[in-house]
Structures are given as structure tokens and as C-alpha cells.
Amino acid sequence: MNSAMTKEGLEQILDQALQDVTERTAGVRLYQGNQPLGEDLCTVHITFDKGFDTSLTLCADTALLVRMAQNSFHEEAVSQEDLEEFSKEYFNVLCGKVVGAMFRATQVSAHFGAPVFYHGRYEPEDQDVQFILTYSDEHSEGAQLIHHVPRVHEDGAAPNHS
Amino acid sequence: MSKRIMVVDDSRLVRVQLEDVLKGTEYEVAAYCRSGEDAIEQYAAVQPDLVTMDIIMQGMDGLDAAEIILKNNPDARIVMVSSLAYDDTFERAKAIGTRGFVDKPFHQEQLLKVFGQALS
User: Fold this and answer.
1) Between B112 and A108, whose confidence is greater?
2) I need a labelling partner for A112 at 20 to 30 A (CA). Which of A14, A51, A88, B77 fits?
């Protein structure tokens, strides 16, 4: 999303998409704040491979994702597989909303790959954090939406993946 | 008689959501495919009244899968169900010959309206 728009503009798009999709998909309201995450975490990561050279990561308390998955599946017991299914679909929808809003703002058409799920915290290689939006809910469980950009090496060049 | 829907989406969550939303309506989920490749393979055997197709999936994306299904079955009625709801994807979906676009997360009213239009 790089140079196509300002950091503030992108933060606003991400914030709106996250709040809207979280409430509509899982019936949970998240509020921006500074509460640190717990120790039991899950991460979902999506890489943009056309339009924008960037990636988005959602790192969240497992308890929050479990509750969101329970609400979405209408089931009290959710398996690890359900948790992963929910997390990937939720983040897929969120990123779709972001791409739509980015297109309306910049006329740049983006494409992203299938989401990847990790237990614990995941940091994409060769990328730096540009900014982090931190959220929590009424149960003080939290999530971080992290925008990564390609790491610029000392010679000023972005890494070559070819 | 129920209208038979083939759901193409790599997420089981979407299947659950669609079954919830279609409960008590004239539609039933007749088949569920987790990839575009699976949908292409199953279409002829299932012969659904309508296909709902996600876009971002593992392997072939939903627009490419829809294009192949329509090439092999020009009468197929396909509705894209995706969060990638913006001009660029709308235009490609329309150019391929799909019958509508439902934005995720979806509502029952929106879904039934687009299904009705696609089948009319």
C-alpha cells in the first residue's frame, strides 16, 4: 500500500474494515487501545502479490479468536480446525474490504494470496513493521493488526525474491 | 421443489453461514466444493440450479473457475460471493458471464435478491 496513499489514510481504511468485519462476521466489537496481548496467541498472515508490495498480519489472543469462531459457527465447542478455518476466512474478508477501499481511494487494483494461519506470533521474513493497530474487546482480550512493508537493505534496494 | 445450490468456497464457515441463511427458503445446498478445480470436476455430475463462487481460494481463483465452468456449460448460473467487491472484480465477473455478485459478509435479504435475479 506503500506509497499509493498516506499512512494515516491506510490506518483509517484498516481500522474501519476491521471494526466492520469483526462485528458483522463474529458479533464482537473491538476498540482501539494500548492493551498488550496475552501469551496464548494465534496469527493470520496475508501477502499482497499484485498492486501493493506489502503484507498484513493479525495477531490475536487465542481466546478472542475462539469466541469469535464460536459466535460464527453457532457452536460452543470449536476444534483447532474450526479456529483455523474461522481465522482464515475472517481475515480473508477483512483484506477484501481493505482492497476494495484501497481501489476506491487509489484506483490501484490489488490481489492477495490465501491466508496462512500460525499458532503463536509470526513475523514475516524480510519485512519491517510500518505500523500496528492495537485493539481489545469488553473481555480485555486483544488483537493487533500489523502492516508490513519490504525491508530496505543498506544499499537502498528492496529484497529480490526472484 | 427446492433450487439446488453448489457452494464453492474453501471455508467451511461460509458453508455454515449459507446453510443458516438459506434455511426455510426455496434453496438448498446440494454440493460443496472447496476449490475451483473441484467445482469444475463436479459441475456436470451435480447439475445445480445455481453456483456460489468465492474468489480467493487455494489453487485456481474463483473467477478463473467460473470462466471454465461457463465455457463448458454456457447455461450455468454463477453468483460470485466474495469480499473483493469493487469495480475491477465486478467488471471481470460480468465479462465472464456470471449472474451476480454478493459481498461478504452477506445478509439473507441481499443473498436472496441476487439469487432471484440470477435465476430469473
Assistant:
1) B112
2) B77
The ipTM, to two decimals, is 0.81
Which residues of chain A neighbour B82 with C-beta distances below 8 Å? 96
Domain that holds residue B94: 3-119
Number of domains composing chain B: 1
Smallest CA-to-CA distance from B3 within B77, B63, B70 is with B77
**Single-letter amino acid code for the residue at B45:** A
- Would you kindly state where each structural domain of chain A is located, as residue ranges? 7-137
Is some CB atom of chain A closer than 8 A to the CB atom of B108? no
Q: Which amino acid is at A19?
A: Q
pTM score, whole prediction: 0.88
CATH number of A7-137: 3.40.1550.10
B58 contact A CB<8A:
yes
The whole-number average pLDDT for the span B61-70 is 97
A74 to chain B, any CB pair closer than 8 A? The answer is: yes
CATH of the domain at B15: 3.40.50.2300
